[in-house]
Amino acid sequence: MSQEVVIGVAELDRRLRRAVEQASGREWVEGEVGSLRLAPSGHAYFTLKDEAEDAVIDCVAYRNTALGVRRHLSDGAKVQVFGRATVWAPRGRLQLVVDRVRPVGRGALLEALERLKQQLAQEGLFDTARKRPLPASPRVVGVVTSGHGAAFADVRTVAFRRGGVRLVLAPALVQGEGAAESIVRALDLIERYPGLDVLIVGRGGGSTEDLMAFNDERVVRRVAGATVPVVSAVGHEIDVTLCDLVADVRAATPSQAAELVIPDASSRLAALKVARGQLLRAWLAGLGVRRSTLVNLRLRLSDPRFLLAERQQSLDEFRHRLERAHRAGLARRRGRLSAAESKLLARHPRTVLAAGRGRIGPLAERLRSLMTLHLAGHGARLRERRVGLEALSPLAILERGYAIVTRSDGRALTRSDDARSGERLGVRLHQGHLGVEVVEVLVDDEGGT
Hints:
- The protein folds into 4 domains: 96 residues, CATH 2.40.50.140; 130 residues, 3-Layer(aba) Sandwich (Rossmann fold), CATH 3.40.50; 85 residues, no CATH class; 56 residues, no CATH class.
- Helix content is 47%, strand content 18%.
- Helix 4 runs parallel beside helix 8.
């Protein structure tokens, strides 16, 4: 009888672990994710289920790999994982240690959609800065949607209720094969419509697969390049399509899109009435302020005739001062001219010539000339003295047009207020005398006549 071999639980776990690890690690395993749990440690725990054969295996993605695979993991997602199966000794549990994860079917489609989203975001197509405001009062509203769906009916209902716009439909397929090309053709067609102000692009909701036409890169880029503002109204709340992100405005439903685009005529009329009342009140208030200001200015201004008279009086005063200054300046210039003429006469060329002739003649003639010159010099000085005396003589002043007024005792008058009305005065001129009687004594501001 052979001896029985007894091993411990740990040894059994080790043997099972070696066997399981040798039998795995070279294949991708496909299944549906379930019971996903993200632990505080950073590890991700989940199950991978094969619905066809009702098989389940526990999986773990450790922290160093969980960050890279977490975006593919969600309950119900169909994925393919790569890793090595092992036995976790503390629980004796079979589990798959996952290193890599890739989506399958719809998951692959979502991954491709995510890559496209990142690419378009890097190109700046989702930037807020490029979003255009909707026109305040559009006249022509274009709609790109199915011609037989509920979306256009909803838009049309809102438009008829609010009024004031023209709806233009460019029918297109909004789901299924060829939907993307149909939407692009409809956008190309409707943009050629004259006077187009704004576009509504969308449909009446649906499943995620139904909305994929609005995630197509051709449609997204065409919406981004539209010549007028675009409202995306795909009609869903949970999923956000790329058209929603690239459009200028996103609406939850086609009806909401129509309400955003088409202004309510009755509301605008009511707002216009309110604004008109406010404008009228503001105008009346401003008119009252200006009327009060005008009254105050009129009181301060007084009669303009007095202002003109005062300005004319000031003008007369300035004219009088100017004339007086002109006369004084003219008199000063005449005095300087007379002095210059006197100096010129004192240096007459005949005197210089006479002196020259005396130096070149015979000695006797030179002597005689010298004597003559000497006498002439004395005569010139005598004349200069004479000219000076004549300049100081009162008679010379009278010769220039001035007069000397004397009283009966012979004293000269220098001030007008020294005379008395009715007094007899004598006036001496350059030639002759006058006897005058004072009729009126005038005294100016400076104390002269």
